[in-house]
Amino acid sequence: MAIAKQYTVNELLRRFQLNVTDSRKKILQLFLNQQEALAHADIEKKAGEKFDRVTVYRTLQTFVEKGLIHSIPTADNSILYALCKDDCTEGHHQDHHIHFVCEQCEKTACLDQVNIPEIKLPLGFKKEKIDVVISGICKACS
Amino acid sequence: MAIAKQYTVNELLRRFQLNVTDSRKKILQLFLNQQEALAHADIEKKAGEKFDRVTVYRTLQTFVEKGLIHSIPTADNSILYALCKDDCTEGHHQDHHIHFVCEQCEKTACLDQVNIPEIKLPLGFKKEKIDVVISGICKACS
DNA sequence: AACACATTGCAACAAAGTTGCAAAAAACAA
DNA sequence: TTGTTTTTTGCAACTTTGTTGCAATGTGTT
Fold first, then answer.
1. Which member of A66, A125, B28, B124 lies 3.0 to 4.6 Å from A121 by CB, making a disulfide possible if both were Cys?
2. Which of A71, A114, A124 comes nearest B75 by C-beta?
């Protein structure tokens, strides 16, 4: 299901079969307003009025399960979350885009334009999902 | 610097300019005996006699800094460690191999044979480092 | 052996994440 | 709208994970 800006937060939540609540609206809005990926801590801080830490955990988990956002593991052992641009469905994320981590501004973005070339695995290995994280200097910083 | 099995643990530690201690020998031996990547928790458990949690943290950190092992971030927000097969040097890891996570046995391995194809980034982005994690079913499980 | 230096383990702490449960809010039905 | 059911929230208590300072111990060197 595609997440496009023409939908309101309420409409989006409905489309993803989620009850419309305050925390979900605020947190989803955060993602819509934002280019780069967000960490749990960012969300706790930026979500305007403060929600309980537990609520943020549970909201993110729900969003991932329903396919609104996907998670990106990072080198420093934390998880970032970003909106799923398209064809992510409940339980199965198609992250066929790459993630770019800027070493200067430390922001992480999804590069939707870039395709991941086919990678041939040795005999016997079956590929289900591929995650590519490239770090370097982003467009804004160079 | 290449890590080959013909060297003893002691020799390896010396070569990487590390003092030879009990915990370092035991932990390095663990990695040498093992195909797949290890999590901090695995190491605490498997390291025969128990070392303090702090010692394990510090030993792993030292090994990463000196280039004996490299770390692999995982989707469930934990870090795995694996031996560096070759050309990793102090402070700079050349992880030009991919990591494969089996969804069945949950083991993570480095596929050294597989090369990462060139990925063209949009104008303005400068690539420094690339991490590829593929999940699916491994050879042993299929 | 004696020295300098590096490493360890303990304790205390900080941060991150989880669970159960009662209260509050949302959805649903009449 | 009102009442009923179901979902979500926030709190408290807890577990797990990771960090820091420091005294004691171990390692390398002469």
1. A125
2. A71
